[in-house]
Amino acid sequence: MKGKAETVLRIISAVCQFYYASYSATSLYLGLTLTIPEYCLEDPNLLQFMTYLMLFVFGNMMGNFFCIIYKSKLSIVKPAPNASANFAQLPTTNTTQDYLSSSLSASESTYSNAFHPKNSGTLLNNNLRETQNQTNTENTLDSDFKSKNQLSNYERTGVEILGGWQRCKDCFVLTPPRGKHCPLCKHCVLKRDHHCYFVGHCIGFHNQRFFVCFCLYGGLGGLYSLWLTSHYLRVHYEALQTWGRLAYVGPFALLHWALGYTSGANLGMVMFWWWSLVTSLMGCCYCFGQILLVIRGQTKWEFFQDKFTYRGTLTDNIQSVFGRYWPICFFLPAPFLGYVGDGANWDNLFSDWKTH
């Protein structure tokens, strides 16, 4: 990625993160101190319930936000620590097979807990036993790497190694099927879906479940604030009696305030109403989009490429993202729950892979 484009994207990411932090703080403060007390008036039981509801929604949103960050490092594809081969160097024709064989051998290590992987980011280039044990390894290597010119061509396009594994042309590590390189994070990510600007990290195999729930509670929190703010304005915003729904439009609200017909506080609440509307729409759209991808068993890249590189049952697709105890994820951010699979090896994997 060119320097200017990367700088622009980083600025966008910083703005999005500020947007999320400022809206969350503002919404929580106004809800607890203004809109909820106004709605409940003298009903203490209702006040307590709605206060706890807001804390539950925003607590889940924040919990999933931090889980996205915490789990993102597990999806980083790292080179095998004991690998002696330098993937940035191009081997000669006579040593191609030995070069790759030694790389695969040096990358092999053990991994015994597929349900709850530990340090998955470093295991990826170590988990090649199935690939290495294929009977046609030598033939595949010979056909994929016949000459130095073909390897040089990889510097532009990337080359598939075995079983969907590829050597990344940007960070020069062996990347498993469905892994992609992020130009902002500067590394490959397991089952990369996209780079989230609101969180500042990539969404991949280990944190997609938290991103789905983050979007869900972000949308619900926005709708909750929108509903409470609408009730507050119906009571205190005089312009609604004159202009009707047009009073929510920015220029009308600004004119009403400039003429002294309403207070600056009411003008601020009108702006916050729009803020909540935009936030709720973004959260709901992202959530529905992610749920669609989960059901279809696709990443965002695969969806826009119209590719079904992995096809499992509906249960397989759900558990692949949320784990076996998936209902818990929608009520509690649970980073201690395990995973089904390791994010590197996929059953029912199709072979029509494009390069990074």
Description:
The protein is mainly alpha-helical and 356 residues long. The chain has helices spanning 3-40, 44-72, 96-106, 120-123, 129-132, 137-144, 148-157, 208-236, 239-243, 250-258, 264-296, 300-304, 314-322, 326-329, and strands at residues 76-77, 159-160, 166-167, 174-175, 180-182, 187-189, 194-196, 201-203. A 3-stranded antiparallel sheet has the order 1-6-5. The protein has a 3-stranded antiparallel sheet with strand order 2-3-4. It has a two-stranded antiparallel ribbon with strand order 7-8. Strand 5 and strand 6 (187-189) form a beta hairpin. Helix 1 (3-40) packs across helix 8 (208-236), helix 2 runs antiparallel to helix 8 (208-236) and helix 8 runs antiparallel to helix 11. The chain is elongated. The two termini are 13 Å apart. The model is unreliable at 82-159 and 351-356 (pLDDT under 50). This is Palmitoyltransferase. InterPro entries: Palmitoyltrfase_DHHC, PFA4/ZDH16/20/ERF2-like.
